[in-house]
Design goal:
By secondary structure, the chain is of the alpha/beta class. Helix content is about 30%, strand content about 20%. It has helices spanning about 45-50, 105-110, 160-180, 195-205, 220-225, 240-250, 270-275, 300-305, 315-330, 350-355, and strands at about 5-10, 20-25, 35-40, 60-65, 70-75, 95, 140-145, 150, 185-190, 210-215, 230-235, 255-260, 275-285, 305-310, 365.
Length: about 375
């Protein structure tokens, strides 16, 4: 037996208060599926954008939250193993990746499930259509077949694991797509949100010789320095994009950066990123620059032989690596410095507002607190 309804914070109208109500759960569990009790949900900038209506193609109502960890309360047939072959049972603590079909060209030929044509992004699941709740702002959530899960180690905190489900795995995939960090190289990180902070730590952990983080406000840049940034540039003070490029040029002795990663998604970020690259540099694009994106100087891409690489948000393999990274460097970086104190579902709306205003770096929701 499993719960047939769950309390959830439902978004019915953009920028409107969340409606905490009972929402159905599937009555029957198909093979490979599960139901979990959400223990922690960490909020992402995308949650704030969805609440604000920045992605107007999203059909409401929905339950937000796509970074979560939970405890298994029911399993469908054939769901007794995780993605790494370990047993899963009622009571197991798990984290999971977006569902994939396992049948399309990306899943089978490319073997890149992150590019699955039928990937189960949470914002595509309406709260009034079965299976209703796959988001984390709920007491219980449904894990569809193909949502590959990983059993958590006993010493892995739920909020760390939840953040691995998007933020951390996205960063690690970006570095993998870039070809890694060459020891002693210069890495510039655009953005000082959770992704930018994690990216700063990864660059330092991987042996970069110089790490430059651009972003704001000041409290986030202070965290970036704690995570290994040698230099920071506050974009709220240095508002001219060309001046930011000039400062990176000065910091690198006019050579430019070997690797520039965009986790900011600002309209000028990609133009700046290319201009910050040195000869044979690499610019990785993760952020969405939007419809008003500045023109990327392709003459610079050609003349410096710059690689421009797109990178999506990661799959279960990246999730596994994200968990290992957080654990391996727990003594070196103060991960908890990113997270706010947890709130219940009744505080979820304010937590989203805090993410939108950048009052919070990484808000945390614990549905069990209500």
């Amino acid at each position: 037996m499993h719960p047939k309804v769950t309390r959830a914070a439902v978004l019915r109208e953009f920028r409107a208060p969340l409606d905490v109500v009972d929402v159905p759960l599937p009555a029957e569990l198909p093979p490979g599926s599960a139901v979990v009790r959400i223990t922690k949900t960490t909020l992402c900038g995308t949650d704030a954008h969805l609440w604000q209506g920045v992605l107007p193609f999203v059909a409401l109502p929905i339950v937000l939250g796509h970074e979560m960890a939970g405890e298994v309360v029911a399993l469908g047939p054939g769901a007794e193993r995780d993605a790494e072959g370990r047993p899963v049972s009622v009571g197991s603590r798990v984290v999971w990746s977006e569902s994939v079909c396992g049948l399309c060209h990306a899943c089978t030929v490319l073997r890149e499930p992150v590019l699955c044509t039928d990937r189960g992004y949470g914002f595509s699941q309406r709260a009034d259509v079965s299976p209703y709740v796959v988001g984390g702002l709920s007491e219980y959530a449904y894990l569809p077949p193909g949502a590959h899960r990983i059993v958590l180690a006993d010493d892995m905190p739920d909020h760390w694991a939840a953040s691995a489900g998007c933020a951390v795995k996205t960063v690690l995939r970006a570095y993998a797509n870039a070809g890694g960090v060459e020891p002693g190289s210069t890495v510039a990180v655009q953005g000082a949100g959770p992704l930018g902070l994690i990216a700063t730590a990864v660059a330092r952990a991987c042996g970069a010789g110089q790490v430059i983080t651009l972003g704001g406000p000041g409290n986030r840049l202070a965290l970036a320095r704690g995570f290994g940034a040698d230099s920071t540039i506050d974009v709220t003070d240095v508002t001219d994009p060309d001046e930011r490029v000039a400062q990176v040029e000065e910091l690198t002795g006019a050579r430019g950066a070997d690797l520039v990663l965009d986790f900011a998604g600002a309209p000028t970020a990609n133009r700046e990123g290319v201009l910050m690259c040195g000869k044979r540099g690499t610019h990785v694009v993760v952020g969405l620059a939007g419809p008003d994106a500045a023109r990327v100087p392709m003459d610079v891409v050609i003349s410096r032989e710059i690689r421009v690489v797109g990178s999506l948000n990661g799959d279960v393999g990246d999730l596994s690596r994200a968990l290992r990274f957080l654990s391996a460097f727990a003594d070196r970086f103060d991960w908890d410095a990113m997270f706010s104190a947890p709130v219940g579902l009744s505080g979820a709306e304010q937590a989203i507002r805090d993410m939108a205003s950048m009052a919070a770096v990484k808000a945390v929701v614990d549905p069990g607190l209500d």
